[in-house]
Amino acid sequence: MSWLLPRILAALLCGLLGASLGAWLGQLLDAPLLGAIVGAGGLGALLGFFDTLRAYRLVAWLRGSQRQAAPRTTGMWGELGYRIERALRQRELGAQQERDRLSQFLSAVEASPNGVLLLDASDQIEWANRTAAEHFGLDPVRDRQQRVTNLVRAPAFVAYLQGGHFDEPVVFPRPQGRGTLSVLAQRYGEGMTLVLSQDITERERADTMRRDFVANVSHEIRTPLTVLAGFIETMSSLPLTEVERKRVLDLMGQQARRMQTLVADLLTLAQLEGSPRPPSDRWVPVARLLAQVEGDARGLSQERHRIETQCDGGTMLVAGAEGELLSAWSNLVSNAIRYTPPGGTIRIGWRLLPDGSGEFSVRDTGIGIAREHLPRLTERFYRVDGSRSRETGGTGLGLSIVKHVVQRHGGELHADSEPGKGSLFRLVFPAMRVRTPEAVAGELQSAARAASDAAETR
Ligand code: ADP
Q1: Using a 6 Å cutoff on CB, does residue 367 contact ligand 1?
Q2: Which atom of ligand 1 is nearest to 378's Cα?
């Protein structure tokens, strides 16, 4: 307020000066009092004129965009301009900070893996993040202010929103594309609704798989158990001859073995799922694995098939868990024998592929598999011919074990087949898991040298 005193003094001075000047001039016209009043009023009006000019410049600045600084004048108008400008700049800064905060918040919501949809009191879309737009098949810009139930017509969703009972989420098929959505709504503000959506397709699929798995296991166990219970009843209620008794015991033994095999396969699968990846530096001779699976094949076949084994590429080693590799290779060989009628040929082979990877293969001249079954063979309990599988002691888990093992070793399972002609199953192991013994020895030597160099420099 440094301008207040000077301004009062200036007004007084102007009044006095005007009055004296007016009185002096008024004396000449014989009206000194009137002259003093007119003189004081005149100078006061002059002061008011300059004030109006300054006020006009300030108002002109206020009417504009205020991008330039306020008019720099002294006194009351200068301070008024300065204070208005400062208040405006502070408000602008505050608004900018608010805008930044809002945009940060929206970016965070935008990045959320869940869909977020804001609806006004009439269920019109206020805002939707990208995930919600994708879940509900909306366009976040074009569909703004549209009633959501006009665009998302899934009956369960419409009934949920209209019902207004939002304690539990609602689950319904995705409006566009395949899959399932879980949606939870919440009221906020004045009649506004927050809608959160989550794609639960994978969770549903896993739940279904788990349910199917339990149902399948129960079914697989129930059948031999029912047979066993029947035989036990027969033995305890009927007098059997020695021959009949032996036959019943044989059949009971078969069913018990079937359950044992099933439980063993289930345990193998559980172990494969729960254990760490097989080592990449434990080298197993391919020839040893081949000899073992060939021995198993001959035992199973009982000379009913021709069995040939071929190993190309010289002495080779494969890195991994010997037990797992043996189980996978034996499973393929056992399938080949079980699904090839007597007199057929089974070819077991190993070869080095041009890119350095190694391929174990089993080719048979058996019943073959129709093309449509091939993609599903590795599903648990999937059987092309259920009765043949069970008759020959199959569990429906063999190929799923094989797939698990080969994937854990970084490889792939390939199946080709033609009904009536035979099948070819191949396991391809990546180049990093396939070596010659010389290469492994060389690698070990250089690793030992590097270790001793490191020890010396320390
Ligand atoms: P299973 O214990 O029933 O043999 P697998 O998982 O090993 O289970 O195989 C799945 C299904 O694939 C088998 O039930 C069978 O129908 C088919 N299959 C597997 N290998 C062969 C093969 N070499 N020839 C014909 N069919 C085969």
Answers
A1: yes
A2: 6
Residue 105: phi and psi, rounded to 5, are -60, -45
Pick from 365, 383, 385, 418 the residue to mutate for probing ligand 1's pocket: most ligand atoms within 8 Å of its CB.
383
CATH code linked to domain 203-271 = 1.10.287.130
Architecture field, domain 277-439 = 2-Layer Sandwich (3.30)
Return contacts of 377-386, CB within 8 angstroms, 24+ apart: 377/415, 378/402, 378/403, 378/413, 380/213, 380/216, 380/269, 381/213, 381/216, 381/220
Regarding pTM above 0.85, the answer is no
User: Which numbered atom of ligand 1 lies nearest the CA of 394?
Assistant: 2
Note the pLDDT tens digit of each residue in 61-70.
Answer: 889 888 888 8
Domain(s) of CATH 3.30.565.10: residues in the chain? 277-439
Considering the chain, tell me which residue range(s) the CATH 1.10.287.130 domain(s) occupy. Answer: 203-271
The topology (CATH level 3) of 112-199 is Beta-Lactamase (3.30.450)
pLDDT in tens, 101-132: 999 988 898 888 999 999 999 999 999 999 99
Q: Where in the chain is the domain with CATH 3.30.450.20?
A: 112-199
C-alpha 414 – ligand 1 centre gap (Å): 14
Is the CB of residue 36 less than 8 Å from the CB of residue 26? yes
Ligand 1 touching residue 262 (CB < 6 A): no
Closest C-alpha to ligand 1, atom 20: 335
Contacts of 237 (CB under 8 A, 6+ apart): none
Exposed, middle or buried, 451 (CB in 10 Å: 0-12/13-18/19+)? exposed
Closest atom of ligand 1 to 400 CA is: 6
Tell me, using a 6 A CB cutoff, whether residue 344 lines ligand 1.
Answer: no
The residue whose C-alpha atom lies closest to atom 11 belonging to ligand 1 is: 383
Q: Identify the residue whose C-alpha is closest to ligand 1 atom 13.
A: 383
